[in-house]
Please model this.
Amino acid sequence: MITTIPEVKRKFDVEEIRNDFPILKRFVNGKQLVYLDNAATSQKPQAVIDALTQYYTFDNANIHRGLYFLSELATDQFETSRLKVKEFINALSASEIIFVRGTTEAINLVASSLCRAKHFKDGDEVIISSMEHHANIVPWQLMNDRKKIALKVIPITDEGELDLDAYEKLINEKTKLVSVVHISNALGTVNPVKKIIETAHARGVPVLLDGAQAIPHFKVDVQELDADFYAFSGHKAFGPTGIGVLYGKTEYLEMMPPYQGGGDMIRTVTFEKTTFDDLPRKFEAGTPNIAGGIGLGAAINYMNQFDRNDLAAHENYLLRYATEKLSQIEGLRIIGTAKEKASVISFVIEGIHPYDIGTIIDTDGIAIRTGHHCAQPIMQRYNLPATARASFAFYNTKEEIDKLVLGIHKVKKMFA
Model:
């Protein structure tokens, strides 16, 4: 029997919350860790670490197949996590929640299965945007081995916002899917995805959203958005690596063939023919990341302790404060100044390579990301080889931003 755990809301207190994350007490190069790379992966609360330890120490067994105590216990915990995800994003049914390795696999699953379902024919088009992560570009290009699909790209403005007028002109009778990022990992832009979906649906076109950066920052309601597919990764939402979610409307998931074949996704197998199980197991071949699924459920439990609006307000304060402080540094330019942004700031400093920035401030225990952020088309759009990127979570503080600013001044002094 699947169980649920009652949840009690906690008052938001950043210093108290930091105590929930053991790694934030770590010292790097003799300095207190300042972790500002949350867009790449988030840190894990003790509750998630404990859930993984509990499973591997006391509850480890394979799921769905065993009639003994440990197998039934592990199955119950895994499927409870699926229910947690369903409630967390307000899906209509738990059967619409497919566990995958992460956002990348989720998008590849949709691309491959829609192609095999004959949703596409030669000459059809998929609309993406100029700010996509490589995970929402390459899978569609790989489809060309099966069908000659054309990618149409929504341009972005100098501020890093989608050109919605251009988007509306791109949709035509050949458009078979719109696949766009909810929040840009390289710019922090929050895209108007509800409007994007409404425009596509008016032409009968389904929409897939890459929600990897959105899920950690604010409440996502897939029914309110009317998204046809929504993908996200557990490790960016304070859960384990190697676990993610593909939400899909039942009507699409039922018409799509399995992504992989093997155990646990079948109903019957003979040498002549195989019949497949119902959703969601049709898409979950083989032994899944059981511990990861349980850990993701623990991460959702952790986030559900708080009012998500309180967490978002704190992150928005950090974004505004960091934007103000970084804008005051001579020679520093912020890349991506959209009106609607999440807590991501990408920047460059005149005459200093981003790799040098990241390397030098690391000596003071400050962790940021440098490079193209798996979004090379964005770098090409701004004629840049790379940027430095600071990204914040609700456990970050104003004082950590001050340390980042001091670190950047140190970099500038070294290159003066």
